[in-house]
Write a structure and sequence with these properties.
Blueprint lengths: L8 H15 L7 H8 L3 H13 L3 E4 L5 E4 L8 H9 L24 H15 L2 H4 L7
Antiparallel strand pairs: 1-2
Helix pairs in contact: 1-3, 1-4, 2-3, 4-5
C-alpha cells in the first residue's frame, strides 16, 4: 500500500533517473554517471535501478560499456510506471493516519488528503517521460 502524498527517496530517485535517461536516449548510462549528474548517492541509485529493470522500464547491461537505457520509447512510459515500480500501486487514501476513520465526526483537513493524493496520482499517470525529456537537456 502506498500513500502518494509521501514520495520516498527511492521513488524520487527512480523518477529523476527515468527522466534523465529520457533526456539521453542515444547513450547507455552507468548508475555512477546518472548519480553524478543528479547529485545523488550512487549506492542508493544502484539499489533503485534493478527495480526499474524488473518492472521492464529500463534495460541494463553489466560490465564495461554497460549501463541503463529506457526499455521502450519515452512516449510510452508514464511517471506513474516508475513510481509504482518502487512503491507499488497507489491506493486511494483520504486519511493521514491511513485508516477509514480516526473516530472524528469529520476530517480535520476537510478532505484535503484525498484531493491532493488524487491530483498527484493524476499528474503521474498523465505525464510521459517524453514530456519531461528537456528538463535535463538532451544530446
Amino acid at each position: 500500500m502506498s500513500d502518494c502524498l509521501k514520495i520516498s527517496d527511492a521513488a524520487s530517485l527512480a523518477l529523476h533517473a527515468m527522466v534523465f535517461l529520457a533526456a539521453n536516449p542515444k547513450r547507455r548510462l552507468a548508475a555512477g554517471e546518472i548519480a553524478s549528474e543528479l547529485h545523488v548517492s550512487e549506492a542508493h541509485l544502484a539499489k533503485v535501478m534493478p527495480r526499474l529493470a524488473k518492472a521492464d522500464l529500463v534495460d541494463s547491461v553489466r560490465g564495461p560499456g554497460g549501463g541503463f537505457v529506457l526499455a521502450r520509447p519515452a512516449s510510452q512510459i508514464r511517471l506513474l510506471d516508475a513510481y509504482e515500480a518502487i512503491e507499488g500501486k497507489i491506493e486511494a487514501n483520504h486519511c493521514l493516519l491511513g485508516r477509514k476513520s480516526c473516530g472524528a465526526k469529520r476530517c480535520i483537513l476537510g478532505g484535503l488528503v484525498g484531493v491532493v493524493n488524487a491530483r498527484v496520482k493524476d499528474y503521474l499517470a498523465e505525464t510521459r517521460l517524453s514530456k519531461l525529456s528537456d528538463v535535463f537537456g538532451s544530446e
